[in-house]
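User: Can you write out an input/output pair for a complex, sequences first and structure second?

Assistant: Here is one pair. Inputs:
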Amino acid sequence: MFKILNTPLQVSDLKQTLHNHQAGACITFEGWVRDINEGKKVLRLEYEAYAQLAEKEGAKILAEARERYSIINTLACHRVGLLDLGELAVWVGVVAEHRGSAFDACRYIIDETKARVPIWKREHYSDGARAWINCANRGDHKNVTR
Amino acid sequence: MFKILNTPLQVSDLKQTLHNHQAGACITFEGWVRDINEGKKVLRLEYEAYAQLAEKEGAKILAEARERYSIINTLACHRVGLLDLGELAVWVGVVAEHRGSAFDACRYIIDETKARVPIWKREHYSDGARAWINCANRGDHKNVTR
Amino acid sequence: MIKVRIKYFAILREQRGLDEEIVSTRAINPIQLYLEIATKHKFTLAPDRIRAAVNDEFVTQDYALVDGDSIVFLPPMAGG
Amino acid sequence: MIKVRIKYFAILREQRGLDEEIVSTRAINPIQLYLEIATKHKFTLAPDRIRAAVNDEFVTQDYALVDGDSIVFLPPMAGG
């Protein structure tokens, strides 16, 4: 299951749902809000999702991971809204009998999520500017608004 | 820091110590007690460590990971004593600016830990037998005791 | 002419100044429709950087639009 | 003859039936010492599967033992 949530992600609850006595390995990925991106000081992040399609595409990615790698279960959540520094934006958990396939699957899921799931991020900078990430048009920074 | 502990590992406390505003990615590995190993039903696991050398060698592995990969911080703990099914035996956490190096470092740490850190594991089976893992001598299962 | 619903997200929502609208168009596919509205509303994202979804499914840019479709133009993804 | 302390872990502790002991030996290195005690106590692990540590540091099997050393024979690791 891939969920878009507009409230803080509860990691221990998420991980709890993956508990399984056949599982020997649990890998989690957490994406946290960083204070610097490409040299600019970030105050907070704003995430926006096209939730219906994001959850559908996310579920597809999780199903692909189950097909490609020998894993027992997986779950991913992405938060939307305004996030402060250090807050958790995305969580991916994978459990498997053995660790190799859990690492591979977790990496596949977060890589594909970033590439394919319709979620957008706007950085809010200390100088008051805001910018949608990956949306600069031919490098002209027209997406920066004040 | 690499710690050997004889009490249940507190994941949220461990992860808390890794929080950092420069970090964009946190990867964790958890090793859980599985109910089956090589076809035999496992009731519980017993871990024993040569703690002084284990913590020293573990710290060396963490230092190697910091040298090899671009990471911000890392921490690992291994529990010893009797563990029930589903309990957490080992935890490795890595934070980095970007996820690629965090995944690589986490995998390096757990692979090297299993190979080099003096910790031993005895499985307790449903038929009352117990066996030290990796200690069968030329496949003759002499290490199984009842 | 067909009528379609367009939903806006992220930079497009901001540049359009609204979440969704119903438009009448002669565009026969998403790329034509994007060019039409991008010119009108001065969207800064080049059409080759946009993907399209219709009725909550990804579609190719030559998908044949039909009356009543609900279309979303997707700026480059930036989750995670 | 030197006197060394031997600490036992895991399968060796179990097979020896104690945690540590002080032994007098003519062995000049860990591998000789292991062969000596393995024969005496019927350890099942072949010497090539054992590593040695002296004074809480890994050593090679030809490390020159000195009086008062504290030695540990390490069965194959199985952490994780």
